[in-house]
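Collaborator request, handled under Task 6.
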Amino acid sequence: MMKKKEVMMEVGLILDTYCQDCLLKRVNQHDYGKCHAQRFCITECTVGEELKQLGKHLT
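Structure tokens returned to the collaborator:
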């Protein structure tokens, strides 16, 4: 089992690597708004799925 600090570092690395400059996120935010873009990232993006799995280690 991962320690909380390790999980948070992994999440930060993933966000910095894949999400910060994500074109899909930017286009969805521009076209449909921030809530839609966030929903897309959580439900349809493979990176979002990985983040959800890491989040389960925090609870």
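The cover message to the collaborator said: "The CA atoms of residues 15 and 47 lie 9 Å apart. The radius of gyration is 12 Å. Please let us know whether this matches your experimental observations."
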